[in-house]
Amino acid sequence: MVIVVFLQLSFDPNLAVRITRMKEVDGHQPVRYCASMNEPTLKEFRTALAVADAGSFRAAAHRLDAAPSTLSHAVAGLEEKLGRRLFNRSTRSIAVTPEGAAILARIAPLIAEFDAALAAGGQAEGSVAGNLRINAPLSAASFLLSDILPAFHAQHPQIEIDLRHEERMVDIVAAGCDAGIRLGRTVPPDMVGVPFGTSLRFLPVASPAYLADRGTPEHPRDLLDHRCIRTRMPRGERYSWQFAKNDEQLEIDVPGFLTLDRMALMIDAAVDGMGIAYVMENAAKRQILDGRLVPLLSDWCPADERYLLYFPGRRHVPAPLRAFIDFVKATVNHD
């Protein structure tokens, strides 16, 4: 099936898209759409592409800040105008039909090129505008607020930033976010990731009072004789503490009566003498510097973690997110 698309460039949000099937292929009858009130619109195609990308009307509605029913009606209207079913629907799921996938695959790069042209025009005037929604845990959000966002805002004052703090792993598409920041090993494999910030390391810490009472571990296996503050991961599993030195690597399922799922609480509990916590060094930097916590087994704790700025692997990245990615690559130190 051969499809030729002409974009009638204007600033009308319901910009008309004329689709003409030029000849009969594989037994299909040629169909010609002429300019009329029943012509498919750019907005309808954008909606269909968002639904196909998100995998559901609800997730697409979060992304577009619209009601799911509005998107459903828009897609139904587009299908009626085209005379083709783009999606198969059930009460619980939605899937792109083979013919719908073929049509959207042809339309997507044309709309992306159109958007890129508009974005380039705005950038040429020094103004990228729009909303940027980022989901991040507290440690990453704090880093953003102190080291990244002030300079980014100075460079892109027209971009509004919605920073959402969440410790647990979330579906950023379903949550209506453009991007997330998480430790690299926890990022879903179907996401595109950009290294973010310097290398990080986790290490055990304890209060001076605890160490005076229970002694200082000299080897990771010594932790089995200590009271530890255990870690609950975002997906619910308990985390085994990891250590490496030379060619030796260890994972220790430490004992302890207390399990927490937030690093800030682990640091507070360790300061209060409740046991040894395994935390990100920079998250406990203030408590280490002022002597409330003592780092342990440092020679067993390499800096081998890194945050990733991640986002769905779409062909077209929104202009505010693209500006942020470029800013991170250009200014954030990756050691």
UniProtKB/TrEMBL annotation:
<comment type="similarity">
    <text>Belongs to the LysR transcriptional regulatory family.</text>
</comment>
<dbReference type="Pfam" id="PF03466">
    <property type="entry name" value="LysR_substrate"/>
</dbReference>
<dbReference type="InterPro" id="IPR036388">
    <property type="entry name" value="WH-like_DNA-bd_sf"/>
</dbReference>
<dbReference type="InterPro" id="IPR036390">
    <property type="entry name" value="WH_DNA-bd_sf"/>
</dbReference>
<keyword id="KW-0238">DNA-binding</keyword>
<protein>
    <submittedName>
        <fullName>LysR family transcriptional regulator</fullName>
    </submittedName>
</protein>
<keyword id="KW-0804">Transcription</keyword>
<dbReference type="InterPro" id="IPR058163">
    <property type="entry name" value="LysR-type_TF_proteobact-type"/>
</dbReference>
<keyword id="KW-0805">Transcription regulation</keyword>
<dbReference type="InterPro" id="IPR000847">
    <property type="entry name" value="LysR_HTH_N"/>
</dbReference>
<dbReference type="Pfam" id="PF00126">
    <property type="entry name" value="HTH_1"/>
</dbReference>
<feature type="domain" description="HTH lysR-type">
    <location>
        <begin position="40"/>
        <end position="97"/>
    </location>
</feature>
<dbReference type="InterPro" id="IPR005119">
    <property type="entry name" value="LysR_subst-bd"/>
</dbReference>
